Amino acid sequence: MKPFDILTTSACALPLASIDTDQLIPARFMKRSRADGYGQFLLYDMRYDESGKPRPDFPLHAMASQGAEVLVTRRNFGAGSSREAAVYALVDFGFRCVIAPSFGDIFASNAVNNGLLPAKVSEADAEEILAQLQTVSAAITVDLRESLIRLGNRNYSFTIDPIWQLKLLNGWDDLDLTLSLKGDIVGFEERDGGDRPWVRLADRPA
Amino acid sequence: MTKAARQPRTLFDKVWDLHVVTEREDGAVLLYIDRHLVHEGSFHAFNKLKDRGARVSRPDLTIGVADHYVPTRTRALGEIAPDIAGMIRQLEDNCRANDIRLFGFDDPRQGIVHVVGPEQGLTLPGLTMVCGDSHTSTHGAFGALAFGIGASEVAHVLLTQCLWQKRPKRMRITVDGVTAPGITAKDIALSIIATIGADGAQGHAIEYAGSAIRALSMEGRLTLCNLAIESGARCGMIAPDETTFAYVKGRPFAPETDMLDRAIAAWRNLPTDEGATFDREIMLRGMDIAPTVTWGISPEDALPIGACVPDPADLEDPSRASHVQEALDYMGLTPGQALDTIRIDRVFIGSCTNSRIEDLRAAARVLASRTARVPGLVSPGSHLVKQQAEQEGLDRIFIAAGLDWVGSGCSMCVGMNGDLVPSGERCASTTNRNFKGRQGPGARTHLMSPAMVAAAAVTGHLTDVRVLMRSNA
């Protein structure tokens, strides 16, 4: 996973609350292989009308050409379905950070597992950033080490779980660490098998 | 006994502590997983395994269930779209290649994963359970610690049977007193979500407590915990009690005889100790809860059926006003419109939220000797629920009312199998999400209990079911 340290880029403002993962990627596209690229399906039903024509006023179209890597939005972003495809869609589209007052827990966890930073700001700061983006065309800087966002001449702090901060800064994948703890896991299984034998299913019929 | 073990602990903490394999310096805990449920959508994770040339670590604790893509109107995969049939076959292939027990499309026990787990006795008190599906919170009804995960985490569990987690905060939601006749777990759940918000419980494990919760059947508790995720919670739990033990006893995969006695003795220690503290406490009075419906595009957009659609002009918070305006535009509603004047085009009874036998009985009681004014689908939560309903004659009530009685699966809750609400149509639905486009592009969803959906079917508009119940009596 690519480490995340400091990012200076343009930002896309999407002033909507509760953009759920069903909207981030509608269910009908989830049969596809990841190799096809999920960016083309990001927010599909907001981006395109029923005949498949792009809705010209939707902010993602303009921002795509500018290579925006930061999305700024309102509360409860990524609520709902646990589909990691919602994160694939954002990442494959080119986003590396989403700024919002709150995130769905499962979404945030999926985001971190794919190197996408869920940066949580206060509701007032989110509104100010969204308002600034209407007028300022300056670049936005997201500094993960300092938990700081810079836009124009303003600084905004964001919160991120310290465990996730470390993981993103280093680009760590948990899996190799866990596999190296095989001995601890086997030890747990042996202890627990005696304490809670009713949990076992291996001796049960199909 | 250590000092720490004598501290009063919550139900959540007791289950959590039982599963800690090791703890990292940064505070992350490696949690052992007792049950890992997989479905057609888990293919991304199986692909990650293939990329590593690895196999599933504990196939005996991994259980496959076909539900998200299964057709509800045919038993022949050859008759459905090849890409959808391919999803079901792909799950079969992945389970076969890894020796995973599968409740596949052909299995007489097939159903929705969160209905099958409890029904088969795979769900037990005190277990840790995960699934690549956010409604895994359902299993918390037994006092299990159960939560939804993404594909990367599914791959991690397949490979290690463990997951790195940070201990969430604890929230207790107490509902005391007696609820009025006609009030169901769905009404309690929607009232809670409307009170605390769709993100109100983010970062928290909820414990539902109080006399109104204790009085719920297992079916009701499953509905309540199912909807924990719709308030943003990591999981929802209810302390196991005699209702739980009676439900577990005799289930195919539940412990039996002496082993069951031993398990129950351990499960009796799980409820929250007196004096244990929670990070947040919420109290509701059972008597205040009315039949509740959603009018908007988030489950928090819920109100008692006697209320009116809100007016964004009355709201001070600009962000909330803009959300309400967006919801009214999408839903095609007028500010101030009485909820019980909203006309519907169809109904859906089903999903992991409300498709168990008690749900079907409640809907059938309202529909008996009546006719639905709109078309609709009734999809039982499993083949076994379907069988039982047919033995009780419920299928005949639904069919006589004019509704379609179909097979079991996620069906019209998420539309992946092609059971969709057409664009612009309005559906009264027993499901869990009224998100834009959830039941199909442009579909408009109103969430409510099975009895309330049945009432809406009879009148053709959102209706207080208690009016029909009175004329029943």
UniProtKB/TrEMBL annotation, chain A:
GO MF entries: 3-isopropylmalate dehydratase activity
Presence of keyword Amino-acid biosynthesis: yes
Keyword Amino-acid biosynthesis: yes
Keywords from the UniProt entry: Amino-acid biosynthesis, Branched-chain amino acid biosynthesis, Leucine biosynthesis, Lyase
Family: Belongs to the LeuD family. LeuD type 1 subfamily.
UniProt-recorded name of the protein: 3-isopropylmalate dehydratase
Function text: Catalyzes the isomerization between 2-isopropylmalate and 3-isopropylmalate, via the formation of 2-isopropylmaleate.
Catalytic activity: (2R,3S)-3-isopropylmalate = (2S)-2-isopropylmalate
Subunit structure: Heterodimer of LeuC and LeuD.
The EC number(s) this enzyme carries: 4.2.1.33
Residue span, Aconitase A/isopropylmalate dehydratase small subunit swivel domain: 13-123
Enzyme class: lyase
Pathway(s) of this molecule: Amino-acid biosynthesis; L-leucine biosynthesis; L-leucine from 3-methyl-2-oxobutanoate: step 2/4
